[in-house]
Amino acid sequence: SEKALAGLSPEKAAILSQLTRDMNVIRAAMTDQAxxxxxRPLPMPMQMGDQVVRMQWFYRHQYDEPREGEQDTSxxxxxxxxxxxxxxxPQTKVGDIQIDGLVQPQQLDVILRTEDNLHAHQRVAIxxxxxxxxxxxxxxxxxxxxxxxxxYVRV
Length: 155
Known about the structure:
globular, 6 strands
Protein backbone atom coordinates (compact mmCIF):
# COMPACT_ATOMS: atom_id res chain seq x y z
CA SER A 1 0.00 0.00 0.00
CA GLU A 2 1.00 3.64 -0.35
CA LYS A 3 1.43 3.96 3.41
CA ALA A 4 3.86 1.02 3.53
CA LEU A 5 5.87 2.38 0.60
CA ALA A 6 6.14 5.81 2.24
CA GLY A 7 8.12 4.33 5.15
CA LEU A 8 10.74 2.72 2.89
CA SER A 9 13.94 4.22 1.60
CA PRO A 10 13.69 5.32 -2.06
CA GLU A 11 15.90 2.37 -3.14
CA LYS A 12 13.76 -0.20 -1.32
CA ALA A 13 10.54 1.40 -2.54
CA ALA A 14 11.82 1.20 -6.13
CA ILE A 15 12.71 -2.50 -5.70
CA LEU A 16 9.31 -3.27 -4.18
CA SER A 17 7.55 -1.37 -6.95
CA GLN A 18 9.57 -3.28 -9.60
CA LEU A 19 8.77 -6.62 -7.95
CA THR A 20 5.09 -5.75 -7.90
CA ARG A 21 5.18 -4.93 -11.64
CA ASP A 22 7.11 -8.14 -12.34
CA MET A 23 4.61 -10.26 -10.41
CA ASN A 24 1.75 -8.72 -12.40
CA VAL A 25 3.57 -9.56 -15.66
CA ILE A 26 4.15 -13.13 -14.44
CA ARG A 27 0.46 -13.48 -13.52
CA ALA A 28 -0.54 -12.31 -17.01
CA ALA A 29 1.96 -14.69 -18.66
CA MET A 30 0.63 -17.67 -16.72
CA THR A 31 -2.92 -17.05 -17.94
CA ASP A 32 -1.86 -16.65 -21.58
CA GLN A 33 -3.87 -18.92 -23.90
CA ALA A 34 -1.10 -19.55 -26.46
CA UNK A 35 -1.08 -22.87 -28.34
CA UNK A 36 0.24 -25.76 -26.23
CA UNK A 37 3.51 -26.16 -28.14
CA UNK A 38 4.26 -22.43 -28.52
CA UNK A 39 7.08 -20.73 -26.64
CA ARG A 40 5.67 -18.65 -23.80
CA PRO A 41 7.50 -15.80 -22.10
CA LEU A 42 7.90 -15.88 -18.34
CA PRO A 43 9.61 -12.84 -16.83
CA MET A 44 11.23 -13.62 -13.50
CA PRO A 45 12.79 -11.19 -11.03
CA MET A 46 16.23 -12.34 -9.88
CA GLN A 47 18.77 -10.80 -7.59
CA MET A 48 22.12 -10.17 -9.25
CA GLY A 49 24.54 -8.56 -6.85
CA ASP A 50 22.75 -5.68 -5.15
CA GLN A 51 20.15 -5.29 -7.91
CA VAL A 52 16.92 -7.06 -8.76
CA VAL A 53 16.71 -7.56 -12.52
CA ARG A 54 14.01 -9.09 -14.70
CA MET A 55 15.26 -12.21 -16.44
CA GLN A 56 13.23 -13.41 -19.41
CA TRP A 57 12.52 -17.14 -19.38
CA PHE A 58 10.75 -18.91 -22.22
CA TYR A 59 9.04 -22.26 -21.88
CA ARG A 60 6.85 -24.63 -23.83
CA HIS A 61 5.25 -27.98 -23.18
CA GLN A 62 6.00 -31.05 -25.26
CA TYR A 63 4.23 -34.40 -25.16
CA ASP A 64 5.41 -37.90 -26.00
CA GLU A 65 3.12 -39.89 -28.25
CA PRO A 66 0.92 -42.39 -26.37
CA ARG A 67 2.30 -45.91 -26.24
CA GLU A 68 0.50 -48.62 -28.11
CA GLY A 69 -2.62 -49.61 -26.17
CA GLU A 70 -2.37 -46.55 -23.90
CA GLN A 71 -5.44 -44.34 -23.75
CA ASP A 72 -5.01 -40.66 -24.47
CA THR A 73 -6.81 -39.38 -21.38
CA SER A 74 -5.92 -36.02 -19.88
CA UNK A 75 -4.31 -37.81 -16.91
CA UNK A 76 -2.13 -39.96 -19.18
CA UNK A 77 -1.27 -36.93 -21.32
CA UNK A 78 -0.18 -35.02 -18.21
CA UNK A 79 2.16 -37.89 -17.29
CA UNK A 80 3.78 -37.66 -20.75
CA UNK A 81 4.27 -33.89 -20.53
CA UNK A 82 7.75 -32.43 -20.69
CA UNK A 83 8.57 -28.77 -20.26
CA UNK A 84 11.42 -27.19 -22.14
CA UNK A 85 12.78 -23.85 -20.98
CA UNK A 86 15.32 -21.30 -22.13
CA UNK A 87 17.02 -18.63 -20.08
CA UNK A 88 19.58 -16.17 -21.44
CA UNK A 89 21.95 -14.90 -18.75
CA PRO A 90 23.89 -11.89 -20.05
CA GLN A 91 27.26 -10.56 -18.96
CA THR A 92 28.52 -13.26 -16.63
CA LYS A 93 32.23 -13.72 -15.85
CA VAL A 94 32.43 -16.19 -18.76
CA GLY A 95 30.32 -14.10 -21.16
CA ASP A 96 26.70 -14.56 -22.16
CA ILE A 97 25.17 -17.93 -21.23
CA GLN A 98 22.04 -19.70 -22.41
CA ILE A 99 20.48 -22.40 -20.26
CA ASP A 100 18.32 -24.83 -22.26
CA GLY A 101 16.51 -27.29 -20.04
CA LEU A 102 14.08 -30.16 -20.36
CA VAL A 103 12.02 -31.07 -17.30
CA GLN A 104 10.02 -34.27 -17.10
CA PRO A 105 8.83 -36.33 -14.14
CA GLN A 106 11.83 -36.97 -11.90
CA GLN A 107 14.33 -35.75 -14.51
CA LEU A 108 16.08 -32.51 -15.47
CA ASP A 109 18.48 -32.29 -18.40
CA VAL A 110 20.31 -29.06 -19.20
CA ILE A 111 22.43 -27.80 -22.07
CA LEU A 112 24.64 -24.92 -20.98
CA ARG A 113 25.55 -22.81 -24.00
CA THR A 114 28.41 -20.34 -23.75
CA GLU A 115 30.06 -18.02 -26.24
CA ASP A 116 33.44 -19.68 -25.69
CA ASN A 117 34.47 -23.10 -24.46
CA LEU A 118 34.58 -23.35 -20.66
CA HIS A 119 37.77 -24.62 -19.06
CA ALA A 120 37.74 -28.28 -18.02
CA HIS A 121 37.78 -27.38 -14.31
CA GLN A 122 34.74 -25.10 -14.81
CA ARG A 123 32.79 -27.86 -16.59
CA VAL A 124 33.71 -30.36 -13.86
CA ALA A 125 32.69 -27.95 -11.07
CA ILE A 126 29.35 -27.14 -12.73
CA UNK A 127 28.68 -30.83 -13.40
CA UNK A 128 29.42 -31.78 -9.80
CA UNK A 129 27.15 -29.06 -8.41
CA UNK A 130 24.40 -30.01 -10.83
CA UNK A 131 24.60 -33.69 -9.87
CA UNK A 132 24.60 -32.79 -6.16
CA UNK A 133 21.45 -30.69 -6.66
CA UNK A 134 19.79 -33.57 -8.52
CA UNK A 135 20.68 -35.98 -5.69
CA UNK A 136 19.24 -33.62 -3.08
CA UNK A 137 15.95 -33.37 -4.99
CA UNK A 138 15.81 -37.06 -5.90
CA UNK A 139 15.90 -36.37 -9.61
CA UNK A 140 17.95 -37.79 -12.46
CA UNK A 141 19.50 -35.88 -15.33
CA UNK A 142 22.63 -34.35 -16.65
CA UNK A 143 24.29 -31.21 -17.90
CA UNK A 144 26.09 -30.90 -21.22
CA UNK A 145 28.09 -27.99 -22.55
CA UNK A 146 27.81 -26.44 -26.00
CA UNK A 147 30.23 -23.63 -26.84
CA UNK A 148 29.55 -21.15 -29.62
CA UNK A 149 26.82 -18.51 -29.79
CA UNK A 150 25.71 -19.96 -33.15
CA UNK A 151 24.08 -22.77 -31.14
CA TYR A 152 21.90 -20.40 -29.09
CA VAL A 153 18.18 -21.00 -29.59
CA ARG A 154 16.44 -17.79 -30.65
CA VAL A 155 12.82 -17.36 -29.60
